[in-house]
Specification:
globular, alpha/beta, 8 strands
């Protein structure tokens, strides 16, 4: 994965801005590769008289403008340049993302970019790509916003490459219904162990980019970490306002009975504001909450469910491999039975809050494989009937949507009358 580190050392080399400050230019052709395009946002007051932090955004489907808009308000307030590629992709070979990243790096030389404050943001597969790029660009990338996609542990991965490195930071996030939620938590725990500066925040939602408010929170936190890591001057007034707000939020969480969330926030405050005496109450509250029997019980149960989630992921792959190895497609009932869909749905309906949330995420994982990955593979191998069986099973969990609709349209000519009836109503534009 050859990302051009030489381009990083050339930053900055500013020429005239390509559009007015405080404005997004929706499609810009890359300086060195006319096949590459990106959206460009320059914050209000932008000029070449100073340098500016830059956020490179890698959307897994090349939806440059959609992803850029999530960061725009915070970039305007904090003074960040945003470059978001139309050419990044997930679930495929690495070359498109390498080419897109290199093209944006080359184009960034035309702007007044702070070479010490380069950041990456990715979602799902491009979250993993962003973490990989950060390792390969070590010493140039100051932080990553990693949403809904983690890397497994490996020597030389971000946990070891950035161990105890105060000049680098990771803001991790995932939806509470995201099938990758547990892997994001696990990566955060490894960062804690190796003392990589990190913050994890969950949002109420599925496998998706976080809402704009959380994207703004990520940029604010990276701004704080830049001060702590010596990448920019400390603005003590700004820090104290933010610290006060975070302490108030932690107290509010505890008062409302959300003790585990309060514990996590107090721990984060203690890490991030260690040099400010005003943060000491967070240290005390974290110690007290960490010893609370209710929190201990919650953490024990959460750990058990996380292990179950990991086992389910492995068992799902084995079940799907056995299905692929079969000479003929299994019946719809066999597919849904082997994947324990009904049992998980019962847990969602009757389980306690932790178990129901875990079962919901497991169903989301099964759905994405049945509605996207498996039918895509079957269609590529000329087996539309088997693709249809996967799509039928997915409907037992939730409606076909997004890219699954394209796959359904492709497979539908091979459908039986019964299958057409069962799939009726899926994707309003599907005949």
């Amino acid at each position: 994965m050859a990302v051009a580190t030489a381009m990083m050392s050339a930053l900055p080399g500013p020429l005239a801005a390509q559009g007015p400050a405080g404005h997004v230019e929706e499609r810009v052709t890359a300086a060195t590769d006319t096949s590459q395009t990106y959206a460009l946002y320059l914050p209000p007051g932008y000029s070449a008289a100073r340098t500016w932090p830059v956020l490179f955004v890698l959307d897994p489907r090349g939806r440059a403008l959609l992803a850029e808009k999530l960061f725009e308000d915070a970039a305007a307030r904090l003074g960040w340049v945003v470059m978001s590629s139309y050419n990044t992709l997930s679930d495929g070979p690495p070359e498109p993302n390498v080419n897109a990243m290199n093209a944006m790096l080359a184009s960034a030389q035309r702007l007044a970019i702070d070479p010490a404050r380069v950041y990456l943001a990715g979602f799902s597969g491009t979250s993993r790509v962003s973490l990989e790029f950060a390792v390969r660009l070590r010493g140039h990338v100051a932080g990553v916003i990693a949403d809904g996609g983690a890397l497994g542990f490996a020597l030389g991965g971000p946990e070891t490459a950035f161990a105890r490195d105060s000049t680098f930071a990771v803001f991790g996030t995932a939806g509470t219904r995201d099938f990758n939620y547990e892997e994001m938590l696990a990566m955060s725990e490894r960062f804690r162990t190796t003392r990589v500066p990190y913050r994890f925040a969950a949002f109420d939602g599925p496998h998706s980019w976080p809402p704009a408010a959380m994207c703004g929170e990520a940029l604010q936190w990276l701004e704080l970490r830049a001060m702590v890591g010596g990448l920019r001057a400390v603005d003590s007034a700004w820090v104290r306002v933010r610290l006060s707000a975070e302490l108030a939020r932690a107290a509010e969480l505890e008062a409302s009975g959300r003790a585990v969330e309060a514990l996590r926030l107090n721990e984060a405050i203690a890490r991030d504001y260690a040099r400010w005496p005003e943060a000491h109450p967070a240290v005390e509250r974290a110690a007290a909450l960490g010893g609370d029997p209710r929190v201990v019980r919650y953490e024990t149960e959460a750990h058990r469910l996380a292990e179950r989630d990991q086992r389910q992921g492995l068992e799902l792959q084995k079940a799907l491999e056995r299905e692929r190895a079969g000479r003929e497609a299994s019946s719809l009932e066999n597919v849904t039975g082997k994947l324990h869909i009904v049992d998980l749905q019962k847990m969602v309906e009757h389980g306690d809050s932790l178990e129901a949330a875990s079962a919901r995420r497991q169903l989301a994982r099964i759905w994405v494989w049945l509605a996207f990955y498996e039918p895509r593979a079957y269609l590529a191998n000329g087996a539309p009937a088997r693709a249809l069986r996967m799509l039928e099973a997915a409907v037992a969990i939730g409606p076909i949507q997004g890219e699954g609709c394209r796959l359904l349209r492709e497979a539908l000519p091979a459908a039986t009358a019964d299958q057409r009836e069962r799939l009726a109503g899926q994707c309003t534009d599907t005949p």
